[in-house]
Amino acid sequence: MLQNTDSGAGPLHGLRVLDFTRVLSGPFCTALLGDLGAHIIKVEPPQGDDYRAIGPMRDGHSALFSVVNRNKQSLVLDLKQPEAVALVHQLAAEVDIVVENFRPGVADKLGIGYGQLSALNPRLIYTSISGFGQNGPAARRPAYDIVIQAMSGIMESTGFPDGPPTLVGEAITDVLSGLFASWGTLAALIGRDRSGQGTHVDAAMFDATLSFTVTAVARYLFTGKDARRVGNRHPLSAPFGAYRAKDGHFVLAILNNKLFAQFAQVIDRDDLAQDPRFASDEQRSQHEPLLRAAIESWAADLTVSDVVERFEKGAIPAAPIWTVRQALDSDQARYRQLLQDTDDPRLPGLRLPRQPIQFSAWENTPARPAPDLGADTDAILHGLLGLGLDKIAALRDLGVFGRQTPLEHTGDPS
After folding, report:
1. Which residues are identified as catalytic?
2. Does domain 240-325 have CATH number 3.40.50.2300?
């Protein structure tokens, strides 16, 4: 991989990425690469990425688009025009990575598939993100987060025993597939440095989400049993979950006999550590309702703050349940700089997240705001391909950059 000695530039400084992705999974993947210093060229259709029009909106700008398209440039191309495809072919020869999340087969039809671009640049890393992968009986099936949550087992194992299967409160399958795609892309780069050859990285939301369900998969492989809905507790351990105090809920995590004995002392119930029903983690899980009753009886007259303080003094893992606002505004998140102040005249006071890994050799660099639609088209074509302004103007007259008619704002996604 390219080496870099500039502590402010990031470990991926010097890598160029041609980004055909839109909405969430693909843009999240390339945002992670951009956070680490890669040069991201986001190729958009004339109407722009759909996420530009999805709320919540502020001053005409989408929060979702702004967050996952930080550190990118915007190049508008109408890929229905042969001249636009020809430009992509020229760009593919100048970049290290292409990332796309079209439906399988669409990139090939457009003339920008792996086979077509790798023939022009054999060292190219070409990453495809899709719902079910590039092959298999479900490959052409449309996929959204809710579809993958439903088909991966996550929904069936989430919720309370007497309630329906429940969505995880985040578009987790999009985020997971974007994360795995970035990981696969970087692994492919290391392989390319050794072999000299590029490759096609095939990342599927379905595959990534199944790989994420580690405890459910492990349970099935060893017992043949599906994960069951257990509400706000661990499916295999106890006491390990959310419990009620006087003014709210807290979480507690006990995973071995030593911790359980310490826990029993903290709640003044040493008898629990001697009870044969709680002699092992598996037995404690079987008798979890008894432990829940003991914990909530002890905590009934205590605030969450008092409960957490007592458990922390006893070296027991416990915590309050925070909102996203509380988490982001916490002293820990501020110290770790998980949000960055971003200079954007369009959105005064803008803060953006960054990738969460810290490196001793590279400093965190300020995030650049998401680009306006097509803002960098001329600069990219001139700077990277050497096209003169007259040539760019002629391409514009041919409709290569389309007629930019941004999508209407639609408010919050339902």
Report:
1. 234
2. no
